[in-house]
Write a structure and sequence with these properties.
catalytic activity, 577 residues, four-stranded mixed beta sheet, NUDIX_hydrolase-like_dom_sf, five-stranded antiparallel beta sheet, flat, 18% strand, NUDIX_hydrolase_dom, 14 strands
Length: 577
Amino acid sequence: MHIATKRDWPDLKPMPASYEDMKIELHFNAAHMRNLRRGFVPSDQDEKWFLYFEDNILHIHRSWTGIKMYEVVFDDDGDGGVARRVRINLGPDYGGTRDDAWNTLLDVLSYYASDEAHQPHESSFVSALKEATQPGYLGSPSVIMELIAPYFWRILCKELPKYCSGLDALPDYEPASFSDVLSANERIASVLSGADESFHGLEAWRTEQGLGKAVIRTLALDPDWYADENLHCILSEGLAGLSTAIAKIIADWANDSSPHNLNALFEFVAVLREFTASVILGTHTLYFPDVTLSDFTWANRSRFMQRDEEAGNCLVPEENPEDFDEVPVEESQQSSFEKLLRELEALDAELEEDDALEDEEEVLQPGPPVHPRRDDNGNPVKLAHPSTPTALWTWQDPESIAIVIPDGPMPSELAAIPFDSWVDAPTDHAGWQRLAEQHPVEEPDLNLPKGKKAAAGVVIVEDDGRVWAVAPSNAYGGYQATFPKGTYSPGTSLQAAAIREAYEEAGLRVQLTRFLVDVPRSTSYTRYYLARRISGHPGDMGWESQAVMLIPIDRLPEILTHKNDAPIIKAVQAMLS
């Protein structure tokens, strides 16, 4: 049994001078005191507290920042102990109320005094890895390909006999009816909508707002008609549209004046199957950017094929498509078809070999536990709860919240404005000031209250009506999400500070458009400006942000929940309404 000491955790901060000292009386039995004296050393990013017991004082630190939040002084009480006094950190590192701090302390003491806190457990990463290796994991390309393969095959077996004979010679061919196709459709829709408990994974994606919207958009369903439908209905209708599209492709192939190469048809349908799998996995914006089902026509096949179609060895339809003679299928055709099937079953291997950005989009995993950029002192920034990015399609949907993590993938542009890194951003105060002076905005004089520090913030509005926000690293200051803001530096203006903060916290280059509102805080007085994005890349966010978000304006109160942001939200909604 390991007893934690302060040497077990790096960069521990002392209790600041602004702590509050409180007399308390909390009794713990002998078993609970043994657990508290053990302390606690985190082994996983989900474990937020580091504790050690020294000289009858329990020291409680935030694990990812090392900030000391509590010192609890104990006296012996028979076999147990009693907490007599606590020092609580209520400085600027906290950001909550005294009652919040007290309630959190009670939760921490209750949990780490229990046996549960000290039981061996596996990390969230290990849990996720185990889930991914279990049978039926719907984040696996091979599982998805196996799930949808019978549907495509039954459509082919149903439609091809209308135009070709000799199909009995094909491996695994058997006549298929409309009922067979419908049964395969129902199987896929049921599994992906959660009706089959033997399948699991990507639950957050397999919703009406995630996979449902992707199916509506890519498989060309009417968004208004299906807006209120459940996921099973959306999937079933989308798959029905696929069946219609494949039937049309086969008919156009049969009526094509060029030689009828059955292998070329199979290869094109294989690409459509690959497209369908990518929609289900959420990777279609990477593998098939800006592609929908309507793009898959026989006349348009050259857009998708990576190699020229080979002529010869084909089944040729007779003059009357309802009266075919038996045409033998040559051995070379059988081997070509078998080769195609092997290629289809190996698609998961091809997907796994793609780069890390595609993997990240595919499984929508949280970002790494350490920020790729160091803090102002050169120290690494550990992230206790890394943010999870959204699928790339959310950036193009004005009704969706879009999220990117540091160095995460982004579409190439939005509203015709590219997402490009700002390689020549200013590096000193004078540079930011010169930039601000190029496009100054009119503003009232700042009446700074006595004892307050001046600060500047910026509300960046996209043309689609959404607003940019940042997720401070480790919810600093109690903010899960907020607008970019920071104190201004001597020798620069508040407008320069606002432009600088937009870049440092969100990676964006902005142009201010007007004054918005002045907001008093406990120690600062912050002036906010409206702005528009003119370049930059949100994936370039600095260490102070663990995610950058684009949020529909009517959902700002839902996401930016800190009370300090309420007047800014009210002002921007009023101005833009």
